[in-house]
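As the next step, I selected for study a record pairing a protein sequence with its backbone structure tokens, which the following lines show:
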Amino acid sequence: MSNLKEICSGLPLDPLPPNQGRDPSVPHAPIRTPNLTAEEERLALRNALRYFPPSHHTTLAPEFAQELRQFGHIYMYRFCPTFRMRAYPIDQYPCRTRQAASIMLMIMNNLDPAVAQFPQELVTYGGNGQVFSNWAQFRLVMHYLSEMTEEQTLVMYSGHPMGLFPSLPSSPRAIITNGMVIPNYSSRGQYEKMFALGVSMYGQMTAGSYCYIGPQGIVHGTMLTVLNAGRRYLGSGDLRGRVFVTSGLGGMSGAQAKAAVIAGCVGIIAEVDEAPLRKRHEQGWLMEVTSSMEHCIKCIREAKRTKTPLSLGYHGNVVDLWERLLLEYKKTGELLVDLGSDQTSLHNPYNGGYYPVQLSFRQANQLMSTDPNRFRTMVQESLRRQIKAINELSDAGMFFWDYGNAFLLEAQRAGADVEKAGGGATEFRYPSYVQHIMGDIFSLGFGPFRWVCTSGDPQDLAVTDDIAASVLEEIGANVTDCIKQQYDDNIRWIREAGKHKMVVGSQARILYSDQRGRVCIALAINQAIADGRVSAPVVISRDHHDVSGTDSPFRETSNVYDGSAFCADMAVQNFVGDAFRGATWVALHNGGGVGWGEVMNGGFGLLLDGSEEAAKRASLMLNWDVSNGVARRCWSGNSNAYETIQRTMEEHRQLRVTMPFPVQDERVLDRALQG
């Protein structure tokens, strides 16, 4: 393909493009193992062929069948564009409405090889976070968006474009659902079959909602987590000379190296796959890479001694690293690690999300497809070894937390010693970062707000950074003590964001902000577009991992203790409420972060174009998008959320929230139950 116009022209059928297969120069997703019966294989092939006229079935059927048997899925590589995939300036997209063009820009950013983990398999991050299920869907979506008017909405069923349906100008231009499977059938095994059949899809969070902005999308949250972990566990926000050990440098986990350096500590990140290590080093996110354990230990000691911030990528298995750190402690009495976590993709443990220490990277990729049961056993053995080393280091004084990637959940399922005596259903030996750190931040209404400058001009991003900083400084001068630290941290972040060179793909920025901050920043940016200080529209969005966006009992709602942690009303209500309050597009997903069947989450995109209508939409939608989750957290008994929603009701007289009356005397319950 030579240009955007051709990409948006629909499926190329006359003639068919040549089948060039997989590009060996880019990383590829592990082979999937759906274990289809002969009849299910037949159904998968029939489902794939329905995108094409019967005259092409004779040509396409054999190659689709080969893809299914060789890779476990029909990606339709023949239809993968040869055109450079990236976020082009919004005015270059051939379309009838800028709202549609903004969605096209965000889709292409998610599939940019500099951004996407496995671009040819349409995986943005997390090992299996799909944008679409196959390339026919991509081409049809781009075609529909190019023809869409402001009285139509694109309806997306798990990657499949159901079509353009009449709607109102005030309606979302796209409604996306991913993985909406009947609960009793939402198991991992069923998912693999459904994905192979082309009828459902795992969109992770911002992969399937077209809102990913590269590892920057989580670097700010990771930095805040590490910073606040230091304050909570080590008694200081000064992390110079402190060592943080973790694993994973793929998609979201790629942020850990940059976050560690910004927080001022020594970050040691293990990664078994050389490709993401090389990618993060070339992008400037990793300062150094080594495959030598001896060099790694030497660097830790030197950085601790000199208190020099460092991000070191260790090319090897994190279990080996944990066991070596334990050995050093036993030999010398020196504890070389202060803080620990893990960001391997354990929501997907048996299909490339976790690599057992007993195997090389190549051996593991081979075994997971040739002998899945043996591979599963080895993953569980590896998890038990990893936890054993972590437990001993923790007993020696290291502080460890779960990063919401299902690490402790899968370790528990593997039989590792992670039980918490007397703990509830969502509690383990170690806290999740939400339970001890981010949960309180969410309850104050702070979360990962973000924006994308659709001009692609770095100058526009610099202007919006300055706007956001000025807005926060003005608000932060008159805030209560309980949120003063949050404002100070975020003002520092946005003032220094440009110098850290975090942009990968689109000209985007992330900033943790509360309800008032988000609304004021959005309105100020919208005004700057109207005034010409920002040269083109700006898309505002957020991570699904936010105050209201996600119901996840082992992550986002793990600090909800009223029994509702396993309920998903908040995420579903958020999706619906954003849709009729002005979002340009909305998405609702099963799975994300902790994994399929474990989470419900949603997100949005909203185009600011400098108009009064955009300002009205932003104000109405963003206020709801935060208050919904704070109200739910308040009702569950969180004191921070109680104070936050009380204050919000005073500022917004039309907001009226049902407030809880806590039981003040536990003896009332005792007497009632004894009676």
Q: What stands out?
A: Residues 90 and 454 are 5 Å apart (CA to CA).
